[in-house]
Amino acid sequence: MDPVNDPPTMSIIGQVVTDEDAPKLNIPVTISDLETSSDRLTISVTSENPTLVPLQNIAITEKLATRYLSITPAADQNGDTQIRLEVSDPEGLTALQTFLFQVNSVNDRPTAVGQTHHIRINVPLNDQLEAYDIDGDNLIYDISAHPEIGTITLVNTSTGEFIYQPFIEKYGQDAFQFVVSDGDKTSLDATVEIIIQDNIPPEITLKGLNPDYILQGDLFYDFGYTAFDNADGNLNDRVETIGSVDTDIVGTYHITYRVKDFSGNVAQKIREVSVLHSYGQLQGIVENIPTIADPVKDIAVQLLDPVSEHLLRETSLDKTGRFSFVYLPYQTYILHLDISDHNNVPPVYLPKTVDQLFLFQSNNQEIHVSIPELTEMKESYKLTVSLDGDYKDYDNYEYRIIDYRSGQTVLKGSGNSPQFTERLEADMSYRLLILADCYSPFEYENDHGDPYIEIKQDKEVKARLTDDTGFHLDDVQVDVSHTLFDTDNHKGFHLWFVRKKL
């Protein structure tokens, strides 16, 4: 009688249960065959749900009669799948079985995600922390470590909204850490790195006169410069000088001083040197000086360029009210008087400026200028201007306050904070102009479209600036012209601000 090949057999595996992310190791299954030794039997396995249990996550030992299965569920997966085992002998006869593999759901620890932010010096960061939970639970955020050169405020613990405020003038790298919780488990710490960029350019200060004047044929001496950076300190040795002066040839020369700090911020100053055939001395006297405790201290005398209004020369009065400028080129100037009470706290009178355009054309020419009546502080009110819109703290700006009736500039000032205050004569109307790099020029109008501010009491107004990257203070001059409206007899003049490229 011919022998009959019998199929192999295997032991039964019952339901297997494990937890999410927990492998089940060494599940035994015994295989045998009457005609074939166990080391010649082969065993294969499949998973009906490869998302839960990928095939590569199932391992089987070889050759022994008792084989061992190790099954690892995919990360963060739970549910059921059927595992199918098949044993075959060399003749192709098989034995089959399936068993249920069950993975129980387990609450996973949420994950906090680190971030990196770049911000400008002195500018706060308002953003949102990042985290996720595979189980979709609601999360609660908490700060676990605070920064060193700034403060962190968690605005909303449910959304992770935060405000980081760097300390004033601090720059470099800072960081804080946070965690999230789903109410059961808490994440590991995540780090938020803050890189505070030093975007403040260095300051170059020119020694000597600027502009400078020299007679044809004389020796020109460059008095030099100093260069200082808020972050890097003294940068004198990094200054590049471009340009020269030929004193044999009459003309205007420019020497450029340029420096770059270690953060890449660039600054430059230009010295203007005029080689002249001749120059002279200007004599001046200030008349009608009001009752001022110390006119020598309270009255500054300046010469301004008539186009750019940049400061050219500065001096002070003597006790008789006289002043002089020597080695002065023959040209047109603005004589500018800046009158402020430096002797009393609080001041007795309002600051005042006086401008007079004149042509200097002869040696020892004399100019006379009068000071109008000063306004006592008690006859004034405060004007407070708040900048908003696109304006960013610490951006520099200039402002002018102009008499609405005469068109004369009453006050000029500058600032880099979102608010400034000036005192103005009572019962008057004024125009307000604000100019700043990378912002559109601002001319005040009230809610009714009136282009003036009436000062009858302390007043607060808002100036809404808008971004304009193409506008730069150095590229413009401001002409204040005025036209009398037929219907504006009560208020006087209507002012126009005309911006012209130089």
From TrEMBL:
UniProt-listed InterPro entries: Cry22Aa_Ig-like (IPR032179), Ig-like_fold (IPR013783)
Gene3D superfamilies assigned: 2.60.40.3440, Immunoglobulins
Domain of life the protein comes from: Bacteria
Domain Pesticidal crystal protein Cry22Aa Ig-like: 204-275
Protein name: Pesticidal crystal protein Cry22Aa Ig-like domain-containing protein
Lineage of the species this protein comes from: Bacteria, Pseudomonadati, Thermodesulfobacteriota, Desulfobacteria, Desulfobacterales
